[in-house]
Amino acid sequence: MESTISIPAQRAAPTRLTWEHWPMVRAVAWRNVRLRYKSSMLGFVWTLLNPLLFLLIFLLIFSEAFPQVENYPVFALSGLILWSFFATSSAHVMGALVENAAVLRSLAVPPLVFPLAQVLAGLFNLGMSFVPFAFILHFFGRVPHGTDVLVIPIVLCFAVFIFGLSLALSALNVFFRDIGLLWNALLPAMFYLTPIAYPSDRCRSECGGSWR
Question: What angle do CA 195, 82, 48 make, to 5 degrees?
């Protein structure tokens, strides 16, 4: 009589996120935040210093070029911190699947855990960047208003947009690694094509009023 041995099939990794996976997402996001500043002496202080250092560079280069912009530091810093969130999060999300390929092959983990954790880490850094921005607003006499809370849903919508765009590029990056390199090359160009350092009406005037 022949006996057969049945080998249980390996459990397939879930493809959808559920509430059960949120502790894992938060843990990975916090790990990403800590690793980003682990080797630096100042640590999380860099989340406060980075926007201020960029603002200083902008003031030295662009403030004299656009004297018509009222409170130029506020104008520039508001765009800088959002651009930094977009550029950093999109670049990290694009590499999340490739960098964690070994984990995804060995553990039953939804692939979305790692890209989403990168966006959450970016939101943490963005929140920290709002601290020096609040001081800049106070310095220029900006009084807090009840409508300021509307920034929260706007930022969340922006985060969803970044996640969706970067996730699509991340899937392409798994098969075509040039996608990540191309994206990193396009980011500086998109920065200067976006009215962050200069007002948008300057674009319309330079283009002869063709922008609508």
Answer: 125
Cβ pair 142, 73 in contact under 8 A: no
Measured at the alpha carbon of residue 130, what is the angle toward residues 197 and 41, in degrees to the nearest 5? 95
pTM of the model: 0.80
Q: Where are the domains of the chain?
A: 45-62+70-198
For the segment 154-204, what is each residue's pLDDT rounded down to a tens digit?
999 999 999 999 999 998 988 888 888 899 899 989 988 888 877 777 665
Cα 69 to Cα 76: distance, rounded to the nearest angstrom: 10
CA distance 23 to 38: 22
Long-range contacts of 17-24 (CB under 8 A, 24+ apart): 17/110, 17/112, 17/113, 17/116, 21/110, 21/113, 24/109, 24/113
- The amino acid at residue 147 is T
